[in-house]
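In this section we walk through a basic example: taking a raw amino acid sequence and producing a predicted 3D structure, encoded as C-alpha cells. The instruction is simple. Fold the sequence below.
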Amino acid sequence: MSGQGGPKAFWEREQGSTLGSVRPPGPAGPRTAPPSRPSSGGAPDPRFGPRPGTGPTGPPARLGGAVAVLVTALLSLVVPLLGLYLGMWFFLLVANLPGIGFGVMAVRRYPDAAEVERYLRYAWACNFAYAALSVVFFVPLMLLAVVILSV
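The resulting C-alpha cell sequence is shown next.
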C-alpha cells in the first residue's frame, strides 16, 4: 500500500478526520488539520448518546416471532377442518390446540422477553410435533384410500 491509505496513516490520523485531511507536504506546503470540536476534557457530551442506566437490560421481546408462531398454529387448523369437511370428525382430535394456546400466551406476555421466549419455544415445539403427526396420520389414510379405490 502506498501513501495516504496505508495502515500507518490510518493510526496516525486524528480521530474524526478523513483521508483528505492527511496529505504529504507538497509544493504548497504542509496542510493544516481541520479545527477540531471543543471537548470537555475527554468526557462524552451528555446531550448525545444514551444516558447511563436508561438502556435495555436484555434483548427485546420478539413480538414478530410470537405473531409468526401464532399464525403458523392457526394455519395448522386447515388439516382438521379439511378432515371435518370430508366427514372424518376424528381429525378434530388432532387439532393443534396446545400450539395455538402457547402462541396466544407468547403474544400476551409481550413486554417480558423471557416469558415470550419460553412460550415461543413451546409453541414451535407443538407446531413441529403437529406437522409430524399430520404426516403420520395422512400417509396411512392415503394408503387406505388407494386400497379402497383399487378394489
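Looking at the output, two observations stand out. The chain has a mean pLDDT of 78. The two ends are 81 Å apart (CA to CA). In the next section we compare this with other chains.
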